[in-house]
Structure to design on (662 residues):
């Protein structure tokens, strides 16, 4: 199916692009009605379905000099899978709305589909792309909607944490932000443009940080395990542990008291770095934490502040507000 | 909640934007878990769920001089509701990924949410926005995912039409394209830029065409009725009747033989105009067509051509392939 030279999507049109994407996805659908009709039909034996949506936009969310098609497909899947996992659910389907400039190369689209499929296979086996939409845009945009199943379990909301619960975290904290800092510090031209990263010249630590940023591996399967272990509250840590912990505390009407020593060698980085898509959860004190979760603190009665670190209110930033924080020039 | 002057989304940040959107949507959620957590949870008593996604992008899909926020919210909802209806399903939830330039006005966002809600209330009562995502982008992009229920019925695919079936259509054919032609012909500046439409100077016919383009009213409830009446195949006519009829014929392995006289005063316009989101369906010959459907032809054994009009093969264009057809300069 390869052309020489690699055509653009504007040269080949929608039907051909779809054929190429379907070729990459072939055999993965688990749906009653998969891609190709007006809509997909999924079996939901449990009688409840979990749905979320999250978008990656060229500029604020990624740069093509830093992320290839496979990286983007992977990340677009991973960030949505994490939101399903954070409800205690099992992801089963992705729907992908892809808006691309006409000069996008076909190989890029194929790589993107490959990355979507690879992330599902690695992080949420049984989950597949079951539908989507193609359109043209000046700005490359990947809007993914993920669907999950509860398999008889109860959804775990942000609002159920109770005083006395253990606060636990699964996954990275601060690594993805370290990767982003590395990119901004070392892989931009003098006028601020993103430039390609020579992977073979990175240290193992730098490679790990870059992978956390470009191809995050949230602990998807631990979402269901946390629910089964009795988690009272859970959320995906996308905007930094500090900000998201304050959100969980506010939703539950409690205070989260964290221990800096439990946050690794650089607690500030762990508290303030976003995009790791770790799972932050509260468990009853008697619960056995599923392997992969580590205790980082305790839930307290609501006090004057939703988040304490080593007993002191923590107001440090966290989070990335795209409307406030994106500066087109610096990226 | 109104500011003076109207702030931009870049000035107020994500939490405030969300508060304003939630205020517009208040009371509409029907979900077990509605907007505000990592994901929504919907009840699916039937054990199957129908999912589709469709995107509107500034430039190829709309111009802000022609479409206000309410128009865009309405249309983004309507085109997705139509895909759910085309499966014979009842829409119950929308998920809206909104990527906006930082200089977008808050009133625009509020209007967009109002339009989403109004389209649900008018076209699919009981359907509501149950989640979404906000991000920043140079290109205003509205990616909607719709979820529907089958309520015990069977999904109606494109592939089930059988020779002898009646071909029927519900909804407009050619009106939305007439509206687009009107906009391009009369409401652009000499250098091709879209300019505002003085509604009070339009004829009733022009107003109807413009409404069909900007605020389509697909016959959503007829999707479920068609399924109940035994429709063997159905699809949403978004790319023009001719192209979509050929698609249904190909999926079903049949020929569709249409009668030009059944297509109104301008059959070519009806066959080639896109964006009406009518429902094209096939019914067994003995079925009583639900009120709102009109017979436009008959399904035949597959012949040399998937589509005949008055007995002759019809190859006329239909459809809008964004990758091939969008010319940024002309719109």
């Amino acid at each position: 199916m390869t052309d020489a030279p690699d055509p653009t999507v504007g040269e080949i049109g929608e039907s051909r692009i779809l054929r190429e994407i379907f070729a990459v996805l072939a055999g993965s659908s688990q749906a009653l009605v998969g891609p190709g009709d007006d809509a997909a039909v999924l079996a939901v034996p449990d009688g409840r379905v979990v749905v979320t949506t999250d978008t990656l936009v060229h500029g604020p969310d990624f740069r093509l000099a830093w992320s290839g098609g496979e990286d983007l497909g992977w990340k677009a899947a991973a960030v949505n899978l994490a939101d399903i996992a954070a409800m205690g659910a099992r992801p089963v389907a992705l729907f992908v709305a892809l808006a691309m400039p006409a000069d996008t190369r076909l190989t890029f689209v194929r790589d993107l589909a490959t990355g979507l499929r690879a992330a599902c296979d690695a992080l949420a086996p049984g989950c597949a792309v079951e539908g989507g939409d193609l359109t043209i845009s000046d700005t490359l945009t990947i809007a993914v909607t993920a669907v999950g199943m509860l398999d008889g379990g109860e959804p775990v909301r942000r609002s159920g944490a109770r005083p006395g619960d253990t606060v636990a975290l699964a996954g990275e904290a601060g690594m993805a932000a370290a990767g982003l800092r590395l990119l901004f510090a070392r892989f931009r031209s003098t006028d601020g443009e993103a430039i390609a990263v020579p992977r073979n010249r990175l240290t193992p630590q730098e490679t790990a940080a870059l992978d956390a940023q470009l191809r995050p591996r949230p602990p998807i399967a631990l979402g269901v395990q946390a629910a089964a272990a009795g988690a009272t509250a859970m959320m995906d840590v996308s905007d930094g542990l500090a900000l998201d912990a304050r959100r969980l505390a506010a939703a539950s009407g409690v205070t989260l008291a964290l221990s800096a020593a439990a946050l690794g060698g650089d607690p500030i980085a762990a508290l303030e770095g976003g995009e790791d898509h770790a799972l932050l959860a509260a468990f009853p004190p008697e619960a056995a934490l599923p392997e992969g979760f580590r205790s980082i603190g305790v839930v307290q009665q609501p006090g004057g502040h939703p988040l304490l670190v080593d007993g002191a209110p923590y107001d440090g930033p966290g989070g990335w507000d795209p409307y406030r924080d994106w500066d087109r020039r610096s990226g």
User: Anything to note?
Assistant: The two ends of chain B are 36 Å apart (CA to CA). The domain at 157-331 of chain B is CATH 3.90.650.10 (Phosphoribosyl-aminoimidazole Synthetase; Chain A, domain 2). DSSP finds ten helices and twelve strands in chain B.
